[in-house]
RNA sequence: CGGGGUGUAGCGCAGUUGGUAGCGUGCUACGUUCGGGACGUAGAGGUCGGGCGUUCGAGUCGCCUCACCCCGACCA
């Protein structure tokens, strides 16, 4: 085994450190000089781009269009919706001045005190307020509805503690903001979008998720209901991976957005918002990766197949290149992204290890030996299995293999998730089990007080009230009061 | 903002009772190599985070300061 890999912190030794090292060694991202911020490197961004493109296509199929709203939000906008202020008033970056000037003492530049803004501007932590401030002008009649708009943007939340991809001060995301004429329509859209996220997570990220609704305390500030997809990471902690909020008429009320309905009566607009962020990158990394590095599901891998030639001299390189050329064309024709890495400044062993760390799903190695035998060495990243196969028909073989890897990754993750999901009936069992990680299904009396008590005593939170699964009533494990159904608990990121 | 820790070569680190700076890796050049992170030879690279003090002399001791990391509070 390569020595760099030997130096890799093992998942079992220190999960956080393993994660951080992996992000850097797989060339995904690095800490930036700016506090709490991250530089996403080209390879990491390529994965994000692939996620973006896939999601964007899925959004568009449901009639959503993209738009862009300003980065800066007048402070007064944030004050409009009372609960929203509660949730977001605190950790925000604030623009107070609009000009710099030369320091009279000659130490570079200083903020010009004369350039103080009349009203401070907030760097958006989310865009509901600026968007609803805008929608007010767009919506007059039921004929203007629905408005189905999404924006791809960066947002900033001045987080106390940050972790690359999982929680950074600035992060990339998409936020959809829909306006509807009826409560029913808005609710349907809210659920449609959380289901879309679940499909994306499972089909593309190969990450099984639990779809559910948040408890009152975990709900988005200003929403009447928050839907979530919850995934389980390999260290037994839960990760909220996407949310969809039914905002009722709260924002319409706050920003005075009314329309004339079919009965010619003024009515407040019904709203929902939904989003996923670069946090999905963290989810992807933590769901599949192993002690050898990143493992990417083929559907999201920027490079699905890498071909590494093994040769001694220019003549040998040429012979392999000629052999590989038709295969490259054939794979590309099938829509498979393939890289033929014949760079001669790195040795084959280095490349093997490098692409392994980067999580490329399939690797082919081709040398003199193979040219003579008409074979090729093939390795799949998910199981690290190597086999020597006939070069003829290899393209079809690869095509099937990629699908097999995709399927295998999902099944492996699902198996782990299911094995780590426990139903418990007593609070003592709960306390014991939560230490071991995983999802816990337990009865809860539905009160914020009990939820708070559990959180304080065990650090576990209610991840969601699942939309599916066991719906038999029972008794709250803490208070013994009636419980409508089991809810999902876990310690979370 | 509490509690703990670390600042020495690009990165990771060592540096003893104070005596003038070292290892690994990476980098550059050349040669031999190339089927799992090659090897040899030569070379470049440091205000020891910053300031003040003690001392003949400070990476090392004292005080101050700054930055970053980890554990909490906050959170997608």
In a few lines, what is going on in this structure?
Helix content is 35%, strand content 28%. It has 15 helices and 27 strands.
Task: Output the keywords.
493 residues, alpha+beta, BirA Bifunctional Protein, domain 2, Rossmann fold, Translation Initiation Factor IF3, 15 helices, 27 strands, 28% strand, globular, disordered N terminus, RNA-binding
- Fraction of residues in H or I helices: 25-40%
> What is the CATH superfamily of the largest domain?
Bira Bifunctional Protein, Domain 2
Radius of gyration: 26 Å
What average pLDDT do the residues reach?
A: 92
- Beta-strand percent range: 25-35%
Structure, described:
This protein is of the alpha+beta class and 493 residues long. It folds into three domains: 15-73 and 128-288, Bira Bifunctional Protein, Domain 2 (BirA Bifunctional Protein, domain 2); 305-402, Rossmann fold, CATH 3.40.50.800; 421-490, C-terminal domain of ProRS (Translation Initiation Factor IF3, 2-Layer Sandwich). 35% of the residues lie in helices and 28% in strands. The protein is built from 15 helices and 27 strands. The strands form seven sheets. It has an eleven-stranded mixed β-sheet, with helices on both faces. Strand 22 (421-423), helix 14 (427-434) and strand 23 form a beta-alpha-beta unit. Helix 3 packs across helix 7. Residues 1-6 have low confidence and may be disordered. The chain binds one RNA strand of 76 nucleotides through residues 1-5, 7, 16, 31, 35, 90-91, 126, 155, 157-161, 166-167, 171, 173, 239-243, 275-279, 308, 310-313, 316, 344, 346-354, 356, 365, 367-370, 377, 493.
């Amino acid at each position: 085994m390569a020595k760099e890999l030997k130096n890799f912190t093992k998942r079992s030794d220190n999960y956080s450190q393993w994660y951080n090292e992996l992000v850097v060694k797989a060339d995904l991202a690095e800490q930036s000089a700016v506090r709490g911020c991250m530089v996403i490197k080209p390879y990491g961004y390529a994965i994000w781009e692939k996620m973006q493109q896939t999601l964007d296509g899925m959004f568009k199929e449901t009639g959503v269009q993209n738009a862009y709203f300003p980065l800066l939000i007048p402070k007064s906008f944030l004050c409009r919706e009372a609960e929203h202020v509660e949730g977001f008033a605190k950790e925000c970056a604030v623009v107070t001045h609009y000009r710099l000037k030369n320091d009279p003492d000659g130490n570079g530049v200083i903020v010009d005190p004369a350039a103080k803004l009349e009203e401070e501007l907030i760097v958006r932590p989310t865009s509901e307020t600026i968007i609803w401030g805008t929608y007010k002008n767009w919506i007059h009649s039921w004929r203007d509805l629905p408005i189905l708009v999404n924006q791809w943007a960066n947002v900033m939340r001045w987080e106390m503690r940050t972790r690359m991809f999982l929680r950074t001060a600035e992060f990339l995301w998409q936020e959809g903001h829909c306006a509807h004429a009826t409560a029913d329509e808005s609710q349907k859209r809210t659920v449609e979008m959380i289901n879309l996220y679940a499909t994306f997570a499972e089909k593309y990220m190969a990450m099984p998720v639990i779809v559910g609704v948040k408890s009152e305390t975990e709900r988005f500030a200003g929403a009447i209901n928050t839907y979530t997809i919850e995934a389980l990471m390999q260290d037994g902690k839960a990760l909220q991976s996407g949310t969809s909020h039914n905002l009722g008429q709260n924002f319409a009320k706050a920003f005075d957005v009314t329309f004339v309905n079919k009965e010619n009566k003024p009515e407040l607009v019904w709203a929902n918002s939904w989003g996923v962020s670069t946090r999905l990158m963290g989810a992807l990394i933590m769901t599949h990766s192993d002690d050898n590095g990143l493992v990417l599901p083929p559907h999201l891998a920027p490079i699905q197949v890498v071909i590494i030639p093994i040769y001694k001299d220019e003549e040998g390189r040429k012979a392999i290149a000629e052999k590989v050329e038709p295969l490259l064309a054939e794979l590309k024709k099938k829509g498979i992204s393939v890289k033929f890495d014949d760079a001669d400044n790195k040795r084959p062993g280095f490349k093997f290890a490098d692409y392994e760390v980067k999580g490329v799903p399939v690797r082919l190695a081709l040398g003199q030996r193979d040219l003579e035998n008409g074979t090729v060495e093939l390795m799949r990243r998910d199981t690290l299995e190597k086999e020597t196969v006939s070069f003829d028909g290899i393209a079809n073989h690869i095509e099937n293999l990629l699908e097999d890897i995709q399927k295998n990754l999902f099944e492996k993750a699902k198996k782990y998730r299911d094995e780590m999901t426990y139903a418990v009936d007593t609070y003592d069992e709960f306390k014991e089990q939560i230490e071991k990680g995983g999802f816990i299904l337990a009865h809860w009396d539905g009160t914020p007080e009990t939820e708070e008590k559990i959180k304080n005593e065990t650090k576990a939170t209610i991840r969601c009230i699942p939309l599916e699964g066991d719906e038999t009533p029972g008794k709250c494990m803490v208070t013994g009061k009636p419980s409508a159904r089991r809810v999902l608990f876990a310690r979370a990121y």
